């Protein structure tokens, strides 16, 4: 009977060697640096466009929530108040 390791079999993961106490930390830092090199920095035009999209969305949501708040407030005054709609 022959013995084989996970690295010998297709689809198996290779064994990771222990690099001492700081091996995992160094591996983590190397992977972080590798991922940071993949980051795309937006151009000035893209940055302005993204900022405007966010500001328009926030303004829209503020308006929507304000209208809902006003409507529910009027409904609460109608149900629990004196029955007159406040203006």
TrEMBL record:
It is found in: Cell membrane; Membrane. Keywords: Cell membrane, Membrane, Protein transport, Translocation, Transmembrane, Transmembrane helix, Transport. One of its GO terms (biological process) is protein secretion. One of its GO terms (molecular function) is protein transmembrane transporter activity. It comes from the Bacteria. Gene3D superfamilies: Preprotein translocase secy subunit. Residues 1-20 are annotated as: Disordered. GO terms for cellular component: plasma membrane. It is a single-pass membrane protein. InterPro entries: SecE_bac (IPR005807), SecE_sf (IPR038379), Translocase_SecE/Sec61-g (IPR001901). The chain crosses the membrane at residues 47-68. Its main location: membrane. Component of the Sec protein translocase complex. Heterotrimer consisting of SecY, SecE and SecG subunits. The heterotrimers can form oligomers, although 1 heterotrimer is thought to be able to translocate proteins. Interacts with the ribosome. Interacts with SecDF, and other proteins may be involved. Interacts with SecA. Essential subunit of the Sec protein translocation channel SecYEG. Clamps together the 2 halves of SecY. May contact the channel plug during translocation. NCBIfam families: secE_bact. Belongs to the SecE/SEC61-gamma family. This is Protein translocase subunit SecE. It comes from Kocuria palustris PEL.
